[in-house]
Write a structure and sequence with these properties.
Blueprint lengths: L9 H4 L25 H6 L2 H8 L3 H14 L8 E3 L6 E7 L6 H13 L6 E4 L12 H6 L9 E4 L10 H8 L15 H8 L8 H8 L16 E5 L2 E6 L9 H10 L6 E5 L4 E2 L2 E2 L10 H6 L5 E6 L5 E8 L2 E8 L16 E2 L2 E2 L4 E3 L2 H15 L3 H4 L3 H12 L13 H9 L17 H8 L12 E8 L3 E9 L3 H5 L3 E8 H5 L6 H4 L1 H5 L4
Parallel strand pairs: 1-5, 2-3, 3-4, 6-7, 7-10, 10-12
Antiparallel strand pairs: 2-16, 5-6, 8-9, 11-12, 11-15, 13-14, 16-17, 17-18
Helix pairs in contact: 3-8, 12-14
Protein name: Metallophosphoesterase
Organism: Actinacidiphila acididurans
Length: about 525
């Protein structure tokens, strides 16, 4: 019998008293919790705001990394990882992992349990927080996944770029440091940016060698050719793109993406910046013109899914594109602080309605999490603390939906106040009374400062079971509680039909596959 999920019961969500998990046995004896509102942490992560104000150097630096890899013979221009997988196999996908504290390690027992028999994992965005320094990979990457017996293929997120991608390239590409770039023209934007730009730490190779010994088996060895890559695996091609600091891609990477997207092989895009997220469409600009989503939607390219990290929860948007379904997914709940879902308005985007949409945690559970957090911090528990039933009821009332879990709670003036203060949207067309402008603030400012170190954590990871005709996708929950460690609950499940992705194009397979041959509703 399947484990009870948050959609079934309070116990499945982790709200009822339960035995804590054993994940802390995996952790180092001393762990420094990451506090995002600490001025020191913000200063270390200053390159993102500087790129927004004075120009983003990511594209130029990324091009230098890729060219250096090709010139030293580490890869060719196609940047393809070729695996010898059968037509039927399974793999994991986990996103936004490495804070190195309780929420990250709490994911691991369930991941090992539900991931038994998988051939590899894909790590989608932000391998390390707050800055991707190479010298922190021991406790934030190698130690947590030391017992996962297969390789892990990552793409970087914006936090991995805060050190110029030096740590990521040294760990996963074995790349030496880049030569020093020419000095910018005095008083130019780049010159002003350079005055405050954070330089990367120098990797300690002895420390890294010691860390690598935690994943020593030949079948565990992780390697990608560059910060973006394609992988031919069984009947699929997985394409991982690097969206850098600001969520777009450079001209050179855009040309490469158009090239590797050719051919009838079904494809999954993995990206650091999701295309559909929080009820909005973000197509991801390409320098020089066009967008990533235009490439994904082109029927000649046969994309069946686009999965992004960066936002630390799970969201699923099944989008109809000219009679074909493309599954757009956010899967960034792999270990970092939780981004709220209760701030997501009633969904009506890309033809996806609220009835089609799924998220984890459900909006009501997200509201409970934040109401209790701010009740404690403001010492106003009697005002702010909501029960799961109260939160589900007030979210449903404001959005005009029906609670997934049965609830008899009444919507009161107090619960409406808390929902308004914490950013729950009103249904379309309804007069807003006292809703404070906290939706974007909660996502970008308050969520990073809202990490907690006791369950439930509302983390997630994906397991994808591939066959020649379809891909079964399951979103598993990780709460930090023992019951969910032993039997991780499924919070969402859907099937991608691969036969639909290639219908009508098999006659052109010989001419189009030169590269392939070489190669909740709440």
């Amino acid at each position: 019998m399947p484990a009870s999920s948050s959609r079934d019961s309070l116990a499945g969500a982790g709200w009822q008293d339960q035995e804590p998990g054993n994940y802390r046995e995996l952790m180092p004896k001393r762990v420094k919790n990451l506090f995002w509102l600490n001025p020191s942490t913000l200063w270390k992560a200053r390159n993102g705001p500087l790129a927004s104000m004075f120009g983003d150097p990511t594209g130029e630096t990324r091009g230098r990394w890729v060219r250096a890899q090709i010139e030293r013979g580490a890869t060719d221009e196609d940047l393809i990882v070729r695996r010898d997988d059968p037509d039927t196999f399974s793999f994991l996908l986990i996103g936004d992992t490495g804070e190195g504290d309780d929420p990250q390690y709490a994911v691991v027992p369930g991941l090992l349990q539900a991931g038994a028999g998988t051939r590899y994992a894909v790590l989608c965005s932000d391998v390390l927080y707050p800055v991707g320094h190479a010298n922190e990979y021991g406790t934030k990457y190698f130690r947590p996944y030391r017992d996962y017996p297969a390789p892990i293929y990552p793409i970087p997120g914006n936090h991995d770029w805060y050190d110029g991608l030096v740590g990521f390239m040294r760990v996963f590409c074995r790349a030496p440091a880049l030569p020093t770039s020419p000095r910018p023209r005095p008083l130019s934007r780049a010159w002003w940016r350079g005055l405050l730009w954070a330089a990367p730490d120098v990797p300690d190779d002895a420390l890294l060698d010691e860390a690598r010994r935690m994943r020593p088996a030949p079948q565990q060895q992780d390697a990608v050719p560059a910060p973006y890559w394609a992988m031919d695996t069984g009947p699929l091609r997985i394409i991982g793109i690097d969206t850098g600091l600001l969520g777009d891609i450079d001209r050179e990477q855009g040309a490469w993406l158009r090239r590797v997207a050719q051919g009838p092989r079904p494809k999954i895009l993995v990206t650091g910046s999701p295309i559909y997220v929080d009820g909005e469409h973000h197509p991801c600009a390409i320098e020089g013109g066009g967008t990533v989503d235009e490439i994904v939607r082109d029927p000649a390219h046969h994309f069946v899914a686009a999965i992004g990290g960066d936002i630390h929860n799970y969201q699923h948007y099944p989008v109809d594109v000219d009679g074909r379904r493309i599954e757009y997914v956010v899967s960034g709940g792999g270990g970092a602080f939780m981004h709220a879902t209760h701030t997501i308005p009633r969904v009506a985007v890309g033809g996806v309605t609220e009835d089609d949409f799924r998220c984890y945690p459900m909006r009501g559970d997200s509201l409970v999490f934040y109401s209790r957090l701010y009740g404690r911090r403001l010492r106003l528990r009697r005002l702010f603390d909501l029960t799961p039933d109260e939160a589900a009821a007030v979210v449903a009332a404001r959005l005009g939906t029906t609670p997934v879990r049965t609830s008899s709670a009444r919507v009161t003036l107090r619960t409406r106040f808390v929902a308004s203060v914490l950013g729950v949207a009103s249904r379309p067309g309804r007069t807003r009374r006292m809703r404070l402008p906290v939706r974007k603030t909660l996502t970008h400012v308050l969520s990073p400062g809202s990490a907690t170190y006791s369950p439930p954590f509302f983390k997630n990871f994906l397991r994808l079971d591939v066959s020649p005709t379809g891909i079964r996708v399951r979103c598993f929950a990780a709460t930090g509680l023992r019951a969910q460690e032993l039997d991780p609950p499924v919070e969402d499940e859907f099937t991608i039909h691969l036969t639909d992705a290639t219908a009508g194009d098999r006659a052109h397979a010989d001419t189009d596959t030169d590269m392939d041959a070489d190669t909740d509703t709440d």
